[in-house]
UniProtKB/TrEMBL annotation:
The keyword Transit peptide does not apply. Belongs to the LOG family. Keywords: Cytokinin biosynthesis, Hydrolase. It comes from Flavobacterium taihuense. The keyword Hydrolase applies. This is Cytokinin riboside 5'-monophosphate phosphoribohydrolase. Coiled coil: none annotated. Its EC number is 3.2.2.n1.
Amino acid sequence: MRLEDFDNDEDRVIQDRLKQKTWNDVKSNDSWAIFKIMSEFVNGYDAMSRIGPCVTIFGSARIKPEDHYYLLAEKIAFKISKAGYGVITGGGPGIMEAGNKGAHLGGGTSVGLNIELPFEQHFNPYIDRDKNLNFDYFFVRKVMFVKYSQGFVVMPGGFGTMDELFEAITLIQTKKIARFPIILVGTTFWSGLIDWIKAVLVEREHTISPEDLNLFKLVDTEDEVVDVLDKFYKKYDLSPNF
């Protein structure tokens, strides 16, 4: 079928990606993609290397300003900034906006790592003007989160939030990166997933070790978040995670 025979954009995109390409087309496209990827890494490293110790806050872009979790994320970011950390978010609306807003109100560094998406994502107004970065590639953006964060605060979210959470846990579990605090906020939201991990992954299928459950903490308040961070770092001379 031809592209014009499809009646929706998603089918057209799939058909375009599946159509036969010559070897020269493949080599040419891949070569130029490498340069674009390199430029995103270089720009990201250059900007992020100057931010100082920061904590990343993840969560849904769909959560509204009046929502309990938005208000809680704002309080957490404010308290984190008062504790001396900057705040990094994905730069968009929802929980991300709340995180940047709390950091802004607390006088702390407020960083936004935006990703270009067909829906949901647009940068929020609480990011420091010189710390608003844009990415085309998810994997480059994810490197920036892990490389320049001294902790992850994971609020309720969707697939993207889960993706960031489990990538960090995997990297720490496999010792590809040094351990840092991973804090899940919201017992009501996370308890079902944690119960499943314990019952299925640990006890029934033995696909992870019981000790892996210690790689994250579950809390409900802003004070608990800062307490976890402080307890983890009080025995270290805190420095950027690279």
